[in-house]
Amino acid sequence: MLDSTRIWLWGGRLAGALVLGFLLLPIFAIVPLSFNGGSILAYPLQGLSLKWYAAVTSTPRWLHAVGNSLIVAVSTVAIATPLGTLAALGLDRIQFPGKSLLMALLISPMIVPVIITAVGVYFFFAPLGLANSLTGLVLAHAVIAVPLVLVTVNASVSQLDRGLLRAAESLGASPMTTFRKITVPLILPGIVSGTIFAFAASFDEVVIALMITGPGQKTLPRELLSGTRENLDPTVLAVASILIAISAGLLLLLTLVQHRSAKHHT
Amino acid sequence: MRATKERFLPLPCDEPWKESPEMTQHDTTRTEPSETRPIVRFSGVSKHYGAFRALCDIDLEIQRGEFLTLLGPSGSGKTTSLMLLAGFDSPTTGTIEMDGTRIEGLPAHKRDIGVVFQNYALFPHLTVAENLAFPLTVRRVSKAEIGERVEKALSLVHLDGMGGRKPSQLSGGQQQRVALARAIIFKPRLILLDEPLGALDKNLREHMQAELKHLHRQLGITMVFVTHDQSEALNLSDRVAVFNKGRLEQVDAPELLYERPCTPFVASFIGENNLLDGRVEALTGGLAAIRLEAGTVLNTKVAGRPAVGDRVKVGIRPEHVTVGQGKSAFAARVVEISYLGDTRRVAVECGGIGRLTLKIPTGAGADRVGIADEIRVVIPEALCRALPDTDGA
Ligand SMILES: Nc1ncnc2c1ncn2[C@@H]1O[C@H](COP(=O)(O)OP(=O)(O)O)[C@@H](O)[C@H]1O
Ligand SMILES: [Mg+2]
């Protein structure tokens, strides 16, 4: 009896490790190659070097792409976070028939294939002169980022204890003060998580970027894609490694935020 | 409907509320105008949720400085009353006055009423000191004064030095005290407490009851306390308002509620009672001759103003029925005995009366009865009380 549970336990762990390896190996294969001393994209490494990273920082088109990506991601967050948060708060506050339908509608960009959104956005934006512009890209990214904020903030808001808001009111706080001093701090972890998701979604996004941006507005993922197609050198791998590091950093931040909010609630 | 209500109108409070000699802790300037006017008055207050009547035509006065308890079974409308008073909801009909001003439309944050919630409702992201400072900060009290008052409030509830902790680092009893201190610190006009001790274990609950009583005496502030526990209500209160199914049955001092209940519900909800069905046969002076359904006529005191022919329930407490001889004793047969340590509860089938429960103190000699024993019991008519049978009406 005990033995069979052990076998299952270890069998499960082994299976888990295999799946994890399968998921992570491609990533780990790339990172060491970006430190390769030679210029061939294959193992074994021909000595270690940071020259490909140096190449990234000294190539104008990469720097330009990084700048574009940052501008777009930050602007997307600036639009999506307030909108998603307000939508979550509003949906939580009122009850009406069609509420779940509206919720489904609001998060539909998360479910609709990105390519559909991209094509739709392109045909909608082109006549408005928003194609081939960063503004257009930001607006399109906001469409896919709002649901991410909405869903995460909604989760926080639904955990919020109504009694606390009543307590604040009974203590003399106006609805606005209650919102600022009680509601916002308590749902802040949700807002921050949503913001991180929104930032990451925009920063990694390539499909809409391909559709909307012209040569003048290339973002990092887009530049990366053309880099792999045109001249495949280890610079691309250095850029990829930087992207991986940023994603990992955001993930770490997310875990930290969620850990801190968990401490409040126990 | 109206007529029945008039007849069994709750008696006014016989006992004036205690006036605290130590008003120093509290803002006395507020209480100067009209010392004797009730601080809160509910007039004909009803609250309907759709077709459901959570509160029906409540008339209630809360006296300045008193400890009033709203007592009733779960779902009887206690919390609803409190929420109407706190301003989280408004009555369907009727008016609520505070200090002579109608407040039905006044938002909660402008009412200046401290509320202690059942689950404490402490802000989890703030420290204990910040929780206490919250009502002062929103009132723009100066930093220095806030610090001072927080220290004072902490020591008032015996939590000195705990200001830096988060609520999650405190025990249930300590959180309870923080909630209490937070409701008191801004010197509200009155304090509402909704079953604040419900979540505590028995020992701690009794301890907190004593502290609450002490605090009330010390601060002289009006407190409205909600509980479904009758012993808690009797122990703490100057007056108790008994709720049943959204109606106010009786408002009185604990002794009066116990000794002179006005309705069968109050008679059986506060302590134990035998309730015997009967009809008014004659009225003489303050007494009534009641013919029980089982045949016997008892001359009892009456509650309210029943008319001849009205259905009533005669209440007699188990501890008042005794085993004994004499002319007025009734023959009875023991059908059930439960041993409770200090007393035995004995159920008897009594000829001409019906089923009765007695409480016999252990070691009183008369307690050596056995099942199926034929005994005689004495029913002191002076301690019987005929109550209007509201169910049969
Ligand atoms: N918001 C509401 N909607 C519908 N019914 C309610 C609402 N609030 C309370 N009630 C009902 O009103 C009755 C009285 O509730 P409450 O005042 O909370 O009782 P108590 O505090 O005495 O236990 C209950 O039957 C409850 O179900
Ligand atoms: Mg309640």
TrEMBL record, chain A:
Q: Where are the transmembrane segments?
A: 66-89, 101-125, 137-157, 186-214, 234-257
**Gene3D superfamilies assigned to the protein according to its UniProt record, in alphabetical order:** MetI-like
Annotated CDD domains: TM_PBP2
Against PROSITE patterns, the record matches this protein to: ABC_TM1 (PS50928)
Which Pfam families does the record cross-reference, listed alphabetically? BPD_transp_1
Q: Which PANTHER family match?
A: INNER MEMBRANE ABC TRANSPORTER PERMEASE PROTEIN YDCV
One biological process term from GO is:
transmembrane transport
UniProt organism field: Mesorhizobium prunaredense
The topology of this chain with respect to the membrane is: Multi-pass membrane protein
Tell me its family: Belongs to the binding-protein-dependent transport system permease family.
Mainly resides where? Answer: membrane
- Do you know which SUPFAM superfamilies this protein is assigned to? MetI-like
The ABC transmembrane type-1 domain covers which part of the protein? Answer: 66-254
A GO cellular-component term linked to this record: plasma membrane
* Protein name as catalogued: ABC-type spermidine/putrescine transport system, permease component II
- Tell me which UniProt keywords the record has, alphabetically: Cell inner membrane, Cell membrane, Membrane, Transmembrane, Transmembrane helix, Transport
Name where it's found. Cell inner membrane; Cell membrane
Database matches in InterPro entries: MetI-like, MetI-like_sf
